[in-house]
Amino acid sequence: MTTQLQNTTYTGQKIDDFQCFNRLPDYLKNFYTNQNGFVALNGGFHIRGCVINPQWHSLGNVWLGDLKLSDLFDSLSPNDIPIAQDCFGDQYLIREEKVIKLLAETDDIVFLEKDFFEFLELVKANPIGFLNIENIDQFELKPGQLLSVFPPFCINSESEISMKPIDFVDRILFLSYISKQIKNFPDGTNIEIELQ
Description:
By secondary structure, the protein is α+β, with helices and mostly antiparallel strands. The protein is 27% helix and 21% strand. The strands form two sheets. It has a seven-stranded antiparallel β-sheet. Strands 8-9 form a two-stranded antiparallel sheet. It is globular and about 50 Å long.
């Protein structure tokens, strides 16, 4: 199955991370054999690839490597396959053959109750609405960038929201940090964020 989405800004090259590829279930191996990931919707949606480089496109990097998401977010397991992300750094993972969404600011899981191909069909049918990336056309994200959002969406603030492109590693590490800081606060807790 080949997935075509509008405004593709990067297409994955040939598979070269066989350590990662060989751990995948057969249906994902078949997908990656036909299409080794891509960045679409002006950077709004990214399916990672079985590559060693570039690191920002590497499934192995965030599943098994130095930026292992299951080490950064408590709600994830090493068995969750971090197949995709949106432009804000929310993650789409496969857990027990179904897609889950990690709301990265709060380290919460949403169970989508769809398999990988059903998930792709939902993205294709209504990409902007389903992924909740209405503002993506205002930005020119380069491959390897995500949108920094401040204050975070999960914080009810009177401050104007600022968004800007930053390196994906910086965004993922910030999301991990902020989620650990607010994870156990009850709704409505007043917090103060200091930037250094």
